[in-house]
Amino acid sequence: MKAGIESIINGTPRDSAGCVPLTVDFVDTVHNAKSYEWNFGDGSTTVITTVPGTSHIYNSVGTYLVRLIAVDSTTCNIRDTAYVHIRVGDIQATLDFKPVKLSPCDSFKYRFDNLSSARVPFNNTSFTWDFGDGSPQVTAGMASVFHNYAGPGTYNVNLILTDTTYCNAPDSATLQLRVAALVKAQFETPPTGCVPYTAEFTNTSLAGQNFQWDFGDGSTSTDINPTHLYPVAGTYTITLIANDTSTCNKTDTTRQTITVANPPTANFTFSPVTPIENTPTSFTNQSSPDAVNFIWNFGDGATLQTMTRLAVTHQYNVSGTYNVCLVAINGAGCPDTTCQPVNAIVTDAVDVPNAFTPLSSDINNTVFVRGFGITKLQFIIWNRWGQKVFETNDVNIGWDGKFKGVVQPMDVYAYTLSVEFSDGKKATKKGDITLIR
Q: Residue 280 belongs to what domain range?
């Protein structure tokens, strides 16, 4: 039996430093003890748990030695100990920086001004710059740094605090920098939506320091990637103006339209309303005219998707009440769903036709097991020489008269059938099938 202690701060595993007041989660990484004794090193009472984790708040600055004792009296060593140091400070830095595009306007060279602050001065190695383009990171202090991008693009620039003098190291400040010689406004959003529609706009502009959005309904935004709710159906023209004084053209505008549609109304009737034994249920689609696509869910696991309004039928296999749902979808992709309870009465029955015509083009070209309430079956067909030419365990699969891809000669074929019904009853049946061609 062993102990292994790990500290977690703000969801980051193996983090052992932070700012007062500091909440630290502790876990035993081995997870095989019966109980755990936690001493947090700050004079507080030892905590005993039966689970391999706990948390503690440090309210004073200092470095604390945390001890975990994992206990299991059924093992040889009974108790095992692990330690971790936690450093709590109160010197916190505020991170901030500003990118400055350098002349000429068609260059990709920037100056980055570090605007961070703290009550204790930074040194020349307190920070690391990551310019987001895969170039080597740069260690620096408060002095400005310069970077020349190889080409246009969108880069996530990170200023990372690496100086552990500050209790919030290694915090970072991130800024998305859009680099281009000419600012070009562009964005992406789905062209259609359904009331109430919350449109999400993805800003893909080249360059751009600030942005002005007009959503076409009197609302505006200056967010980079805004969202906007359209509660009323209609066609709206969205305008995006991208501004960047460091580019050669300064500003650019683009427009797109979106159509927000009302959903259709799903509705259906069915018959017979009062169930008739072993009789399929017929469903009539009465959805609103704007619906063009339909999904039926018959409540027993069976579904049907159709683009027509023709009535559909469904035969239930077990007596009961089923929650039948119809989803109606219009041309804009807006759905509406309605559901109704449907009752069915099913009585066990099974039969096999005595003849079929495999070369015909009608419903008699395949021989199926027919019946009600069947949940399992084994259906085997034999030719006059005792050779098995067909077998299935699926009531929906029948014999088309072929064996190894060849239609068999006109003859009388024997079959054996065993079935199990939904109520658990079983039945067997033997007989002859005439293949006519």
A: 268-344
In this predicted model, what pLDDT tens digit does every residue of 351-367 receive, in sequence order?
A: 999 999 999 988 899 99
Asked if 160 contacts 170 with a C-beta cutoff of 8 angstroms, the reply is yes
pLDDT digits (tens, 9 = 90+) for 123-139: 999 999 999 999 999 99
User: Are 71 and 103 part of one and the same domain?
Assistant: no
Domain count, the chain: 5
CATH code, domain carrying 211: 2.60.40.10
> Using CA atoms, how far apart are residues 418 and 437, in angstroms rounded to an integer?
28
Q: Tell me whether the omega of the peptide bond preceding residue 272 falls within 30 degrees of 0, making it cis.
A: yes
CA distance 257 to 429: 66
Other CB atoms within a 10 A radius of the CB of residue 412 amount to: 12
Which strand (E) or helix (H) includes residue 368? none
pTM: 0.64
Of 273, 368, 370, which is closest to residue 317 (Cα–Cα)? Answer: 370
Q: Are residues 325 and 376 in the same domain?
A: no
Are 316 and 353 contained in the same domain? no
CA geometry: angle at 76 spanning 72 and 77, to 5°?
Answer: 70
Strand partners, 320: 344
Cis previous bond, 21, omega within 30: yes
Here the CATH number for the domain that contains residue 382 is 2.60.40.1220
